[in-house]
Design brief:
Radius of gyration: 21 Å
CATH topology of the largest domain: Aspartate Aminotransferase, domain 2
Distance between the termini: 50 Å
Number of domains: 2
Bound molecules: pyridoxal-5'-phosphate
Order of helices and strands: HHEHHEHEHEHEHEEEHHHEEHEEEH
Structural class: alpha/beta
CATH architecture of the largest domain: 3-Layer(aba) Sandwich
CATH class of the largest domain: Alpha Beta
Number of strands: 13
Number of helices: 13
CATH superfamily of the largest domain: Type I PLP-dependent aspartate aminotransferase-like (Major domain)
Helix content: 40-55%
Length: 390
Amino acid sequence: MSRRVRIATRLSGIKPSGIRRLFDLAQGDPDVISLGVGEPDFVSPSHVLEAAKQAMDEGKTHYTPNAGILELREGLAKKAKKDYGLLYDPQSEVLVTAGGTEAIFLALTALINPGDEVLVPNPGFVCYEPNILMAGGVPVSMPLCEENSFRLNANVVTSLITDRSRVMILNFPNNPTGSVLSYDSIAGLAKLAVERDLIVISDEVYEKILYDNVKHHCLATFRGMRDRTIVVNSFSKTYAMTGFRVGYALGPKELIASMLKCHQYVAACTNAPAQYAAVAALEGPQTFTENMVQEFDRRRHLLHSRLDEIEGFQCLLPQGAFYAFANVKEFGLSSEKFADYLFDKEKVVTVAGSSFGEHGEGYLRFSYATAYDKVREALDRIENAVKTFN
Ligand SMILES: Cc1ncc(COP(=O)(O)O)c(C=O)c1O
């Protein structure tokens, strides 16, 4: 008989992501409509695909510098200057990673000593808490409440800071709630970070997916923040390039150097053809993203207005990303049970709010990165499911 495999205790408290659960169940059934997974349903721009193919044809299929090809790092530094007036040295302050996901892992690994506390939005992106635990840190939840339009309340955040607090993770536009922060709110949090000597990991992967002329403010532009912020970003959402796995981190050179040390031993480098594709995405026309956001906007209004009409649902109009986070407490079930009910009854996949932390309980996340007609049909089905709910 084989010996039982003993798994490291570091991983024992980490559960698989709740996002994939219903999605996996639904695989292979053409009648299922998924409002579950968070990735654009658009094909990556054709010039991006061409650049990846060309890179392969030219034999650019080898290791690249650990930090990423210089051309891409230069392009990212140029983007930071153009979008936000921020100066980063492409040689030492820009790191290309396997998606924003790896950048978050590297930043936490570089910063956290055992027992250090990390302030993290709750509900929040599913990777944060497991990554904090893997780095030996202690997650401290910063609640995002519906009463406050799922924004952070600076007084509450202040009350959560202790002598062990070291890092704060921010994510606006936000997954799973679609909320954004005003300039003044970010300024308040930045001031707090400076006063309490916190490093901020600012996850800005949805920076370009904003509605109603709302503007994105990069955290590193606030007073005193450039040298205490790791800006995490990605090509996944902006250019519908999730499968390419290209993300990046911008930050002060000591921190980027430590992240690079870890990246070098974990991934060596990001996929080479994908890096050339990313250069093409940066250099090419940006109309792809604008058109995609326009289409998301149409779906956002459809989803929000229809959900709001269905008895028992309450839904704020999201201002960014491609998620709506609807209150379903009236149904009296846990969010997981209610997501199961919609799936069993009408084959609609949603994500239980509790997958994003305990403050997400009582909510369902709906992704509208799904074709307009499918969103409409999913809503018809949900309406039916609710009519027969008892
Ligand atoms: C808030 C947030 N950050 C980071 C990511 C990571 O994306 P990727 O690793 O594809 O760049 C996601 C993906 O869903 C996300 O929602």
